[in-house]
């Protein structure tokens, strides 16, 4: 197989994205130790296919994941951080959460939290994180992400955020919306490292990687 | 010197000046730990400690900050080696979350009321906006702006034709100061109704997705909500045949057809509210009936899944449906 490792634990195998794992939860294909990762179903997957330069999520990382839904992307992050890492997965929809629970149980390094990302004080018992990942499709989501970072991000930690421009402003140009969100991050004390357009995997979606200056 | 209290899955800790000065460990059983964490402020030992130290418990505080920074160092003292900790946290998070999942009540009746409120509001918005157009039209008939909401916003902001760039030569009658301010007052109130409409729609979207994810996958939130409102309750919708669903909202037309019993040229209706689905309304006329039929047959499966199993197979249903539509359009 033509496999090329892009980041530790993340490879492109014959043109397709994969992590090193042998399990399957959503009908994804597993072959010879590679678990294939459909970038059409995951914004992080899409960002990787679109040439993400730096992946702050590494073996052993601690990640706060806001908007875990039923756990698709979470499960791939779980494979990357491995047994030495941990993911706190916050989801407020009861329905999604019920699907997330059994998957978290199998993955063992996922801490499922039924909670509202807009109220970080309700899960203030978690630990400090290497990375905060935010994909809640809320018009206020950058503000929500920043608030969670000030509560839980380690010094010089990373923020990864998927921007659904349509849920922020339908009338403005998507690229303009993404830049405005990036500016909010700069003002809040982050260096913006990358702003990626996720087309054609996700229309009108951007992905921002930022790092806390403090 | 203030003493702060905070809790995490390991236990309750009192922290003062960056040191743990008291602790109550929860033990290694996740369910017990979750139960205690869920109501730690009511544990007898904690109540006593709060009294004894006049400890502060509002979260977040320096103690919660200390715990989240030092969790990994505290864990061994609580009897967890690094290998065990992750698993324990994962299990405790799950148990804690299960404690907060209590509502199994159905919320479909609330959706029905909210949709009806939205429908009322739409009628009112139309009526009031038309009135505003006619009213302001006396003053500045040459002004045109098709979008209702934008029109209202313009009038709210300007009120008088003099504020528009090209009003010279207008054939309208002049407005006095009190005419202008009254028109603006009316527009301002109307604008609030448009804001209310947006909020109602956002509120509905969340609830509908939660209550009927399968139907929503096929119809989108607003149409799914309207279909539910036509049916009256999720249970009723789930028990309907595909042809009944297809004709929901066409009751009047159907009644006219039955009464005529073929004596007059009254055609049987092919669809009710489903006609507003873009796949149906956008299809060539001779395919519309067929597509409405495909849609309603998938909707029976979706509504049953929403009501009985609560299993979410929306994505798969939508895919099957889209394939069939593509096929029908090719024929
Ligand atoms: C776009 S989906 C996330 C998809 C997921 N990240 C993946 O790739 O597998 C957004 C999720 O965020 C959740 N969400 C929205 N607002 C939230 C909030 N305030 N707190 C927690 N979750 C929220 C929604 O219920 C939904 O499941």
Structure at a glance:
The complex is a heterodimer of chains A (214) and B (331). Chain A has helices at residues 43-49, 72-81, 94-107, 141-152, 165-168, 174-187, and strands spanning 3-7, 10-13, 16-20, 30-31, 34-36, 62-66, 86-91, 110-114, 129-134, 153-164, 190-197, 205-212.
Query: How many separate domains make up the residues of chain A?
Result: 1
Provide the spatial order of strands within the biggest beta sheet of chain A: 8-7-6-9-10-12-11
CATH superfamily of the largest domain in chain B: Nop domain
CATH architecture name of the largest domain in chain B: Orthogonal Bundle
Describe this structure in words.
The complex is a heterodimer of chains A (214) and B (331). Helix content of chain A is 29%, strand content 32%. Chain A has 214 residues and is an alpha/beta fold. A 7-stranded mixed β-sheet of chain A has the order 8-7-6-9-10-12-11, sandwiched between helices. In chain A, strands 1-2-3-5-4 form a 5-stranded antiparallel β-sheet, covered by helices on one side. In chain A, helix 3 links the parallel strand 7 and strand 8 (110-114). The longest helix of chain A has 14 residues, at 94-107. Chain B is mainly alpha-helical. Chain B has 3 domains: 4-80; 108-208, Helix Hairpins (Orthogonal Bundle); 212-330, Nop domain (Serum Albumin, Chain A, Domain 1), CATH 1.10.246.90. Chain B contains 15 helices and 3 strands. A 3-stranded antiparallel β-sheet of chain B has the order 1-2-3, sandwiched between helices. Chain B is flat and about 85 Å long. At the A-B interface, helix 3 and strand 8 of A face strand 1, helix 3 and helix 4 of B. The complex binds S-adenosylmethionine. The site of S-adenosylmethionine (SAM) has 19 residues of chain A, from helix 2 and strand 7.
How does the SSE layout of this entry go?
The complex is a heterodimer of chains A (214) and B (331).
Chain A: E1 3-7, E2 10-13, E3 16-20, E4 30-31, E5 34-36, H1 43-49, E6 62-66, H2 72-81, E7 86-91, H3 94-107, E8 110-114, E9 129-134, H4 141-152, E10 153-164, H5 165-168, H6 174-187, E11 190-197, E12 205-212
Parallel strand pairs in A: 6-7, 6-9, 7-8, 9-10
Antiparallel strand pairs in A: 1-2, 2-3, 3-5, 4-5, 10-12, 11-12
Chain B: E1 4-8, E2 11-16, E3 19-25, H1 30-38, H2 44-53, H3 62-77, H4 82-100, H5 108-139, H6 148-158, H7 177-211, H8 213-219, H9 221-231, H10 234-239, H11 242-247, H12 251-260, H13 278-281, H14 285-309, H15 314-330
Antiparallel strand pairs in B: 1-2, 2-3
Bound molecules: S-adenosylmethionine.
């Amino acid at each position: 197989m033509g496999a090329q490792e892009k980041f530790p634990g993340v490879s492109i195998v014959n043109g397709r994205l994969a992590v090193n794992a042998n399990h399957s939860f959503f009908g994804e294909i597993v072959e010879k130790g590679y678990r294939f990762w459909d970038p059409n179903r995951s914004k992080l997957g899409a960002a990787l296919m679109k040439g993400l330069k730096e992946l702050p999520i590494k073996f052993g990382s601690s990640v706060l994941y806001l908007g875990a839904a039923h756990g698709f992307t979470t499960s791939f992050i779980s494979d990357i951080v491995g047994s030495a890492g941990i993911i706190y997965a916050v989801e407020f929809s009861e329905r999604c959460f019920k699907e997330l629970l059994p998957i978290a149980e199998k993955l063992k390094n996922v801490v499922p939290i039924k909670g509202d990302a807009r109220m970080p004080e309700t899960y203030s018992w978690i630990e400090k994180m290497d990375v905060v990942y935010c994909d809640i499709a809320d018009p206020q989501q950058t503000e929500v992400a920043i608030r969670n970072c000030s509560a839980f991000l380690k010094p010089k930690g990373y923020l990864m955020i998927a921007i659904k421009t349509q849920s922020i402003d339908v009338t403005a140009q998507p690229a303009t919306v993404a830049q405005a969100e990036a500016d909010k991050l700069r003002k809040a004390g982050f260096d913006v490292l990358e702003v990626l357009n996720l087309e054609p995997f996700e229309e009108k979606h951007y992905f921002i990687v930022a790092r806390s200056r403090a | 010197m203030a003493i702060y209290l905070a809790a995490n899955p390991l236990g309750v800790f009192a922290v003062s000046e960056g040191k743990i000065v008291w602790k109550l460990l929860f033990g290694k059983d996740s369910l017990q730990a979750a139960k205690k964490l869920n109501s730690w402020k009511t544990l007898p030992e904690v109540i006593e400690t709060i009294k004894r130290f006049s400890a502060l418990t509002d979260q977040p505080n320096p103690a919660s900050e200390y715990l989240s920074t030092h969790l990994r160092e505290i864990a061994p003292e609580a009897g967890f080696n690094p290998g065990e900790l992750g698993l324990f946290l994962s299990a405790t998070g799950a148990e804690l979350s299960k404690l907060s999942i209590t509502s199994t009540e159905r919320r479909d009746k609330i959706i029905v009321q909210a949709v009806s409120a939205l429908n009322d509001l739409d009628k009112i918005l139309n009526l009031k906006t038309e009135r505003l157009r006619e009213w302001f039209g006396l003053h500045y008939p040459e002004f045109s702006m098709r979008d209702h909401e934008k029109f209202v916003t313009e009038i709210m902001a300007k009120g008088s034709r003099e504020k528009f760039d090209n009003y010279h030569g207008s054939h309208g009658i002049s407005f006095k100061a009190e005419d202008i301010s009254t028109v603006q007052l009316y527009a301002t109130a109307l604008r609030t109704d448009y804001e209310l409409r947006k909020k109602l729609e956002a509120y509905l979207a969340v609830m509908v997705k939660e209550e009927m994810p399968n139907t929503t996958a096929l119809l989108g939130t607003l149409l799914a909500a309207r279909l539910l409102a036509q049916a009256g309750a999720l249970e009723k919708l789930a028990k309907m045949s595909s042809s009944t669903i297809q004709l929901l909202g066409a009751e009047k037309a159907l009644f006219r057809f039955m009464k005529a019993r073929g004596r007059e040229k009254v055609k049987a209706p092919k669809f009710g509210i489903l006609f507003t689905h873009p796949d149906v309304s956008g299809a060539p006329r001779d395919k519309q009936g067929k597509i409405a039929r495909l849609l309603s047959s998938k909707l029976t499966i979706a509504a049953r899944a929403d009501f009985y199993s609560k299993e979410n197979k929306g994505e798969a249903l939508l895919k099957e449906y889209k394939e069939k539509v593509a096929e029908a359009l090719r024929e």
